Amino acid sequence: MIKVGIVGGTGYTGVELMRLLARHGAAQLSAITSRKEAGMAVADLFPSLRGHVDLQFRDPADAGLDRCDVVFFATPNGIAMQEAESLLAAGVKVIDLAADFRLEEVAEWEKWYGMSHASPRLVAEAVYGLPEVNRERIRNARLIANPGCYPTAVQLGLLPLLEAGVVDPTSLIADCKSGVSGAGRKAEVHTLFPEAADNFKAYGVPGHRHLPEIRQGLGRVAGRPVGLTFVPHLTPLIRGIHATLYARLERDIDLQELFERRYASEHFVDVLPAGSHPETRAVRGANVCRIAVHRPQGGDTVVVLSVIDNLVKGAAGQAVQNMNLLFGLPETQGLDGVPLLP
Questions:
Q1: Which entry of 68, 149, 176, 289 is annotated as an active-site residue?
Q2: Active site (annotated) includes residue 149
Q3: What range(s) does the Semialdehyde dehydrogenase NAD-binding domain occupy (predicted)?
Q4: Fewer CB in 10 Å around end: N or C, the chain?
Q5: Do 163 and 219 belong together in one domain?
Q6: 252 has a pLDDT exceeding 90
């Protein structure tokens, strides 16, 4: 059994990790940390885990994380970079669900995240954990930078077009909507029910932290810097991301066949039949990205619709997918649940 530790087990990604790992079959939850809730039973804070997770939250200092095989950081930005080096030295694999190791350029990271990087040496070693692109590198990694939720939906939607070189990479548009859980479990006015319900708004238009991550990933595939306009929106949903992506077609091609061929062997990317419109509820609770590609009126604009559950394929599920790759397990292990409806 793989001994698993989770640092920061009281947030939405932490509890989602516990939900997935509790039924994984090859993973044993050994330590769940929280300084604030140390000593409290996990099931007392999260009753949904009663009968599935029989552990107490522990202070990170005495949780025995160095005795784990893998440690997930479900923490705010800036935490994993302070603790990853000592765990790696102890032979522990690390999967960071925050952004500490996602950007290749340390100066760029410090600009967007507003703090000095505590472990710049590890940035070059970290492997970006998008399995549909980096599967073989992930298998041999010690440190995984789990992608962000918006970057996952956007990159999976645009990758086939850029890999095939059939669109203008300088004029991409990502118009994205997210459920409120994407903001985390912390108390903030804009995520209170009276603020978020019956409301719809854009945010981060001048620049969102996920923008450089998306540009980095797409640029690597395109072989050149990309021009991307990324506009996120907050919707009155609990879970889900819907990315509507626009690109200018530069040569005629069967788009449906292109996407089906690219993702034919990818268990967690589902290319829907031509003319489809994927919905966020069709991926709720599941580690899958559903995609539909359109060419309105047969013109030169490609519209890609990409939907994921931001807490699963956009966070905890993708992290477990990466763990499976790290330990030579079937990639689907613990992740074959059917989406929830309604």
A1: 149
A2: yes
A3: 3-141
A4: C
A5: yes
A6: yes
